[in-house]
Fold:
Amino acid sequence: MTTPHTFTFRPLDPLSDGRLVHSWVTHPKAAFWMMQDARLEDVERAYREIAADEHHDAFLGERDGVPAFLMERYDPAHRELVGLYEARPGDVGMHFLTPATDRPEHGFTRAVITAVMAYLFADPAVRRVVVEPDVANTAVHALNEAVGFVPEREVRKPEKRALLSFCTREQFLAATGVSA
Structure:
């Protein structure tokens, strides 16, 4: 299994990374990313907006210097979940996407979510990670549970029915043995 320590994170550059990210988010495997019909310009625009947003960031996760996954971090008090739950100080929202591949690697996606969580919890201000995956995305629900997320309830977002779930630093450590 890939270890979280093999990954590094860097800010996504909407223009130089746009073509790669476009290929990832428009692939049928990325249906829950909801960008299936996006043109390259749409993806670049979306990530330029994120880059300009003080409450939302996008990163490429790299393995050995090669882009391997996409991660977004956001402030749920200002983005995605506004009015759907009571945000607490130290809450951070997260999305991640591992791209489709012709040669799947056993344990890769679990290693990615573990690395993403360790990266987020490396910030001492982060007390809890919040996610809101589509209720139908059972694969990500299992991954979330494996790193310590506990589902709270379904919420209705404009684009989907989502499973609001939370993971504290302590829950992450208990589930993975990884300290951030």
